[in-house]
Amino acid sequence: MQTQAASMEEDRDKSGWVEPIYVARQPIFDQNMSIWGYELLFRHSSQCTTARIDDADEATSKVIVDGFGLVADLLAPSQKVLINYPGPMLLQGAPRALPSEVAIVEILETVQPNPDIVSACAQLKADGYILALDDFVGQPGFEALLELADMVKVDVLNLEDSQLKAIVSDLHRIGTRRLLAEKVEDLAMFDQCRELGFELFQGYFFSRPELVSGKKLSANQISKLQLLKELSSPDLELRQISGIVQHDVSLSYRLLRYINSPGLGLPNRITSINQAVNLLGLRKVSAWLRVLILAEMKSTPQSGELLFLSVQRAKFLETMSSVAKSDGLSGEGMFLLGLFSFLDAILGQPMEDILKKLSLEPRLEAALLGHDADLGVWLDLAAACERGNWDKTEALLTTLNLTSDHTAKSLNEAAQWAKQFLAET
C-alpha cells in the first residue's frame, strides 16, 4: 500500500517541482551512549530570508513529504525518528502518513490538551503510534496527555537539581513511561539524568570532548596520528601512500574492499594495493585513508555519530567552498577542516595536544584551534545546519554571500555521501 508521503512525492515529481529543504537530525542516545534514534529538524530553504516559518502545519507537512525520505536511508533498522506535530495536524491525522514502527509522534508543548486533541492522540495511540510529549517541565494542565504519552521529553537545561528531581518524581508517580532528557549540554548532566532514571538523552554533550586529567592516547591511536601526519605532508606522493597502506593489514584489506564495492562500479576486480592507489588518485585515496584512520581511532560509543558528522561536515564544507571564497583554503583544505573539527571529541584530548602530533598548514591549524575568525564562520555554518539552528544559518549565509537553496541541497547530499562512503569503507 502506497503511503500518503510517497503519493505526494510522486505527484510532485510528475509536475517537475522539487524544492530543496534543510533537514537536520539530532541524535538521541540510550544509557549506553548508543544511538537510539533521531529528532528530525526541518527548514524550508526558500523561506530562509525570513525569521521563521509561521505556518507550522506547512512545515510539518514538508517534513513528512521530504524530510523523512531524506533521512530514512540513514537509519539503522531499529532506529526511530521523532517529528513535531502542532495541534491542527494532529487533528487532521497527519502522523499516519509515516509508518508507526519508525516515526514517533512528538506533541509540541504549545498544543493545548482540549478534548479534541486528547481524542485524536488516543486514536493515534490505538493505531500503534508512539506518543512523545515535548518540552515538559512540570507545567499543570497536561495530565490527560501525560496519561497517553509513551515518552516524556524533559527540558533539563535551566532546571535546578531540586526542580528536576521533583519533576521526575511526579512523572514516576503518574505511571511508567520512558523519560527523555533533552538539552543535555555536558556529560555531568548526562550522568545525573541517567541516575535519576532517564533512559534517553538528547543534546550536544556527545560532541564535546570528555577531557580526563592524565588520560593517554593508546598506542593504536598514536600510530594512527602518525599516519595522519604522513598524509598531511605537502610532498606526499602516490608511492608513499602505497607504502603506508601495504604496511597495515587492516588498511590493505579495507582499501581493496572499498575499491571493489558495488558503489564504485568498476568493470574489473582490483587485486593489488598499487593498482588501487593509482586508480583512485592521490586526492581521493588520501581522503579515504583519513576517514578510515579516524574510524579506527574512535574512543567512545558516541564516536560513531561524531565520525558521521565529521565526514558529512567535510564534504559539506568542500562543496560549499567551491561556490564561495573560502579565505585561502583549497577544497581539500576545507574537507580537512570539517573532517578534523571533531578530533578532540573523538579522542577525548585537547585539540592543541592533538595538533602537535600532526603537520597541518598553519591556517588550518589556527582554524581548528578557534584562532581564525574567517574560517571559523564556515565551521559555524556547518554547526548551525547540523543542529537545525536555521535563524543562525540565515545570518551566516548572508555573511558568506551564499544561496539558501544551494546550501540545503549541499547539506542533504553531504549526509547521503557520508553514509555511502562510511558504508563502503
Write the layout of secondary structure elements.
Blueprint: H1 4-15, E1 21-29, E2 35-44, H2 56-72, E3 80-85, H3 87-92, E4 103-107, H4 115-126, E5 131-136, H5 143-148, E6 151-155, H6 161-174, E7 178-182, H7 187-196, E8 200-202, H8 219-231, H9 238-246, H10 249-259, H11 273-280, H12 282-296, H13 303-321, H14 331-340, H15 343-347, H16 351-355, H17 362-368, H18 373-387, H19 390-400, H20 404-424
Parallel strand pairs: 2-3, 3-4, 4-5, 5-6, 6-7, 7-8
Antiparallel strand pairs: 1-2, 1-8
Helix pairs in contact: 8-12, 9-11, 12-14, 13-14, 13-18, 13-20, 18-19
The tally of helices reads 20
Percentage of residues assigned to helices = 40-55%
Low-pLDDT ranges: 1-18, 48-53
The percentage of residues in β strands lies in 5-15%
Report on the structure:
By secondary structure, this protein is an alpha/beta fold. The protein has two domains: 4-207, EAL domain (TIM Barrel, Alpha-Beta Barrel); 219-424, no CATH class. Helix content is 53%, strand content 12%. Strands 1-2-3-4-5-6-7-8 form an eight-stranded mixed barrel, surrounded by five helices. Helix 13 (303-321) packs across helix 18, helix 13 (303-321) crosses helix 20 (404-424) and helix 18 (373-387) runs antiparallel to helix 19. The longest helix is centred in the C-terminal third of the chain and has 21 residues, at 404-424. Residues 1-18 and 48-53 have low confidence and may be disordered.
